[in-house]
Amino acid sequence: MLNDQELVNEFVVESKEYLADIESQLLAIESGGAVADPALINQVFRAVHSIKGAAGFLGLNTIGSLTHKMETVLNRLRNKELVPDESITNVLLQAADQLRELLENVERSNEQNIDCNLNALEQYVSTLVVENSSAPQVRTVPPEVPPTPVIAMNSPSNPVIEESVPVESAIPGDAPAADNVSPPENPSPSSGNAPVADTSIRVTVAVLDQLMNLAGELVLSRNQLMQTVNSKESRNLDMIAARVDQVTSELQETIMQARMQEIGTVFNKFPRVVRDLCASLGKQCDLRLEGTGVELDKSIIEAIGSPLTHLVRNAIDHGMESPEERVQVGKPAKGTIILRAFHQAGKVNISISDNGRGINTTKIREKAVARGLISSDQAREMSDREMLRMIFKPGFSLAEKVTDVSGRGVGMDVVKTNIERLGGTINVDTELGQGTTINIKLPLTLAIIPSLIVRCQNQRLAIPQASISELVRVKAEELQQSIQNIKGAEVLRLRGELLPLVRLDQVLGAKGKGCPDSKTSAPERRAQHIIVVETGNFRYGLIVDSLQDSEEIVVKPLGRHMQECQCLAGATVLGDGCVAMILDVTGIAAYNQLTLPDDTDITREAADEMKRRTETQTVLIFNNNPSERFAVHMDLIARVERIRSEQIDSIGGRQMIQYRGGTLPLISLEDNIQALPKLDKERYYIAVYRMQQHDIGLLIPELVDIRELDMELDATTFREPGVMGSFVNDEKAVRVLDLYELTKLGRPDWFSERSQEQSPPERSRTILLAEDSDFFRKKLSEYLALEHCRVVACTDGQEAWEVLQSDPTKFDLVVTDIEMPRMNGFELTQRIKTDPSTSHLSVIAVTCLASEDDIQEGKKVGVDEYLIKLDREQLVATISRFLSVAFQPEQVSS
Amino acid sequence: MTKINQKNSGLTAAEMELATFYLDDLLLAVDIHRVQEINRHLEFTPVPHAPPFVLGVVNLRGDVVTVVDLRTLLGLGRQDLTLQTRNVIVKSQGEQIGMLVDRVADVVRVSQNELDEPPANVSGVDGRFFKYIYKLENKLLIILDVDAVIDVKESCQSVL
Fold this sequence. Notes:
Chain A contains 29 helices and 34 strands. Chain A is α/β, with parallel strands linked by helices. In chain A, the strands form seven sheets. In chain A, strands 10-14-15-13-12-11 form a six-stranded mixed beta sheet. A six-stranded mixed beta sheet of chain A has the order 21-25-26-24-23-22. Mean pLDDT of chain A is 75; it is low at 128-197, 401-410, 511-523, 597-604, 609-614, 754-762 and 887-894. By secondary structure, chain B is mainly β. Chain B has one domain (2-147): CATH 2.40.50.180. Chain B is 12% helix and 45% strand. In chain B, the strands form three sheets. In chain B, strands 8-1-2-12-11 form a five-stranded mixed beta sheet. A five-stranded mixed beta sheet of chain B has the order 3-6-7-5-4. The radius of gyration of chain B is 15 Å and the shape is globular.
């Protein structure tokens, strides 16, 4: 019947491309109504016309007659004989669905009965008068057609949107169900059942050409390599190796590029989903798509469709109120759902936000207790945030009644699992009455991932870098205090946080066969390597035997026998040809049944610690000379590196090293402050930091520790330029360095330019400073005074607010700490920003730890800028920027 | 014979070639079209939490291939690797899978008409995974149902 398989395949792929955007286009035409963009109608018309033409040529009569009718209706729309409205759009959309269905099973398309679609279209072909009353119900609600097993097996990668939309019933399910005949004996690659488009991808010729070029290069390099190896001349080997290296990387990059697809291909399905769902639920809702051009790897694009559909449907079903309800609470009857994609920090973020009713945590609490997921005691102890996370638990549903759309209690947990399987994370943010936002973070690609190789039980294992948050080494003598046993579970005390620990060797199980000489008998009393990993909102430590290199690994799937190994994400082939397993940190947590430390003792303790932490600073402690100890604030240090002493050059009395293709100036303590000469060492550490747009390294002979310290500094005893104060640690005095002053001493030339170009302002400005710590208040006042600002310092937000109220015009800028007694920085900012007499003031928040959440929170209440305490340079620059802005209007008026 | 022909409907040629190998003294065979290669890749990477009959995985020219212990699967108990041990890579459901055998033997050409239904067990080995029996002059050749033996879930229990 069909002679040229290849031609048909091509037709199917091409037709699907034509149809890809037809839904959004039809919807746009509908919303345009009588003034719909003729160009758009034309575009749809041409698409349908092209399909019709090719179908006729190939003898696909059913497709031909369907497209013919569609074309006629579209033509009448184009000629303004018909006005696009909801019922016409419905009919056209259903026809498009049917068309897509026919294309999926193109071989059997001629046997399909499409009369209902034809009849529905017919009424718009023949009548001039359009009844816009009840739209003809052409929907063939499938008599719960389960997709035939063949389909279920063959198309796991098929975006499951249609399948998971039962109310929409877009599948006139007769196609696969009508003929339960066994599939054709010869399994030609495109035998109808497997969707063709999913296994092929469009690549521009330019990319292919580039690939061809690179492949040619690679062949050349290989030839060179073979030649060199044969001639036993190793002279050129380095050069050839470099070339192979370069070509391979480029090749990898180009291939990855070819696999990238726009997320729009997924997003564009949603206008239809939203429209149909709203219609069936009697809700009104706009969908806004943002960032449709963001590109993701094909594998992720394919996998993200189903979780996103679920979330969008949830947003409408659970999130959106009915129009009446919305009007009652003073919202516009029509809700809005925003689907947004954007890049951030090497990951793709997707957010689904609605302005509906939000999630009621009290309700979750009740439901969770009622379902026995948590005890009522636990429920009382849990914060709202933790409560929100309950919606991801299996078997949890908030829907009042089970509907077709949602409420069966399968869903969010599956969504979460799916997202995490892709190496992503999911988070919920909600405000009662205001709406809900769900944030998903995804890696750009799954195929090649940077990983850390670790060793455990004599096996090498890979852990994706994306899930590692830090590496910790606990010395043997500190084991006792750092690793503790709380109620039978090991926990790591890390900067005041308690992290559950998992011993990787126990996860791997005592498998004797793979490692004949396992030396795991004496694990204690040895330094422990702990990898702190992050899964969603949850962190834990993984104890491994040793760490090896970081490697970019290619993920290979594991065979079907290992599908149940939840601790593994796959396997990879290492540089030496051996296979290493890739660990799945989420799976390991589940395997060990780790949960958030819901044990109340632990949480409370951790919470206390957290509170303390906000008032502390992380410092790097080191010995310059065995008898003298110093500390610098970690916040200011970009990184610590190790160098050999012979790398240090001395030019004109100044030390520097060749570093990353440039020169890095070095600074020694004893040259600038009162200190004994530093130890002579073969190797030094350098703490690299940035000051005045220059990188500079502080030479450190001996590292001692990184510690959390509260800032009870003695600011008098050792005070000198470069030293801000001292504290006592392990019965030794430790001097805390002021890197700003120290750099100024060591490199006065960097600072002179600036002080010249920035002449002191004509009139000194007044800054209101709110800070509860004496030390910081003093320090900040000092910094600001040096910038010719008048400072009024208050000890908390309440006092600052009172001072501000007494004379709102006196101040030009507010600098505030966040954590303060009586009134915190957020509240102060909110008051300032909402009071008309003060709302013009800019607010700069200074804080020790600026977490993403804090920053978000701050932005919400109106904080103009976030700064890290003690980063003097940044503080000064920001303040002068804000002051100059604040003054402009005045200058204009004067 | 008619019964066999029915079951055998997928095969058309009157003759077939079999790759044969030993587990202990048991002579087993697989349709040669199922065998992709026979090699000595015996450096498995163990896979935690895998079923007990999975020895591990090997790198076969860039693909990660599961290696199963045929002895364990058939309830013969484990044995140390020897110089004769071979990894027989077969294709099953589109996936390459390595089966460890004690030693390989010849390729045998048999006529399909002479294949017999297997008995319930052969030399104490469960007959569930045997497709046919072929009588050689002095030995029984057991033709394995590759898919059945590889996909068995609970074989480990029969071992222990």
